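Run log, item B.
One chain of 124 residues. Sequence copied directly from the ordering sheet:
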Amino acid sequence: MQQLRHESANMAKKIEIIEISQRKLLGKDLDSCSPEELQDIGNQIETSLSNIRARKTQLFQEQIEQLQEKETLLLMENARLAKQCGAQPFQQSNQVVSYLSSCSKSSDIVETDLYIGLPQMRCL
């Protein structure tokens, strides 16, 4: 029973130390810190931030790769469907963007006609 009380007291002390450390890492209760402690806290935060940024970069790279794979599959599906319909598939998605931007720059007229199918590569 004595040993359990001793372990419980040790655990409570460790929890208190961890909570104090956490508050300091969050920028709270820094009044009692020495310059060396503040430097150590700053170094820990910089290391953590570096790790977070590296992980974030890795996740973004993985997402980019997944989206590029998905884009490739969609382009292949688009080409297959265009071939099945007997239409010419778009070679690059930039064609649509350049078409839309050139149309918006060339006139202030709004076209209200509804067309079904691929857009014609012309502007009013």
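Observations after the first pass:
- Residues 35-85 form the longest helix (51 residues).
- The mean pLDDT is 82.
Flagged for discussion on Thursday.
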